[in-house]
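Hi P.,

Sorry for the delay on this. The queue was packed all week, but I finally got your sequence through. Input first:
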Amino acid sequence: MKPILLLLITLCLVGCSTTENSTVAETETADKVLVLKAKREMQLLKEGRVIKIYRIAMGDQPVGHKQQEGDERTPEGTYTLDWRNSKSAWHKSIHISYPNEQDVARAKRMGVSPGGDIMIHGMAKNMAWIGALHTARDWTNGCIAVTNEEMDEIWTMVKNGTEIEIQP
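Then the structure:
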């Protein structure tokens, strides 16, 4: 690896924090997750107050609402974080309840599958070393990606049944 690239990676991993409000106890439980796609940001909220902010990567085609399977868009709207997978290929993952009834109806009118398996997840086990650099571009198939360390925080701070609102 070229020395300058190694230096840039080291500086980003050491000096570039991807979260804010790092003094918040990880045991504080969020009652809502807000994703601001245009800002590439995910906020954990409690009683309307931001308790944690994360930089995120999304689907390769981040603009617009997910229309169908394979479009690589991250959905927009209000969903529920309904189950989790501790043995995910992506470190850990929490499932977003996409598609909802409206998504299914829209896809049916279009004659396509709405897709599914949209998650908040960490990094692939062999790619965790990338850390915060994973947000340099959108790369998922429609999911919301954070670092593994951030996923561990989110895992403890967000319970099943929590609302997630994904805004353009």
